[in-house]
Amino acid sequence: GWTTAKVSEPWDARNFQPSDYKTWVQIQWLHPVWYNRRGHRLDVNNPNMVTQRVLPEQIRQRRAPSEAQQQPRLTLFHIRWGGEQPVNPVTEGAGGWGQIGATPSDNYINGLEDHIFRALGPTYEIISAFIQGSEELPKINAPLLRHLMKGQHVGALYFLW
Predict the structure, then answer these.
(1) Helix, strand or coil, per DSSP, at residue 106
(2) Helix (H, G, I), strand (E, B) or coil at 102
(3) Which of 14, 72, 80, 154 is the most buried (most CB within 10 A)?
């Protein structure tokens, strides 16, 4: 469920404003292997490739008692579009999907994941596979995937274009 990272710049809770992304905690992921949604391996020696800002409630100290040491309540497996072009959310106009956007768009998935976090807190995990076409679906190793899923309950969601 949890991925190791380090806080990469000083952070002061007194300056935190949830609506201002620049006041969120900046972290640098520490896992040695990362791939982007297009299947390209990221250079983990380049901090720009593995640095992100996250909400402070998503931070846990490695050895401090917290839900991070417990079995996740839920594991969700997301199969997502990872083709050359990102999904246009098409939020406006005739045929638009509304404010949240098309279901395979980052807009929609980020909104869904925010909702899940508000409902469950940090007691779940999401494993994602990005595919570029249906011919890649059989390449997902189901026994390995099931082994990786640590949740008491499991589910799968498909966000394909």
Answers:
(1) helix
(2) coil
(3) 72
**What do you get for the CA distance between the two ends of the chain, in Å?**
27
Residue 78: count other Cβ atoms within 10 Å of its Cβ. Answer: 17
Which pair of tokens denotes residue 92? 């406006």
106-157 per-position pLDDT tens digit:
889 989 999 999 999 889 999 999 998 889 999 999 999 999 999 999 999 9
Q: Which residue has the tokens 């000083």?
A: 10
Longest dimension (CA), the chain: 52
12-46 confidence digits (pLDDT tens)? 999 999 999 999 999 999 988 888 777 788 888 99
∠ CA 130-20-120, rounded to 5°: 55
Phi, psi at 142, each rounded to 5°: -60, -45
Give the span between the Cα atoms of 18 and 24, in whole angstroms.
7
Q: Is the pTM of this model over 0.85?
A: no
d(CA 154, CA 144): 14
- Name the phi and psi angles at 13, rounded to 5: -60, -25
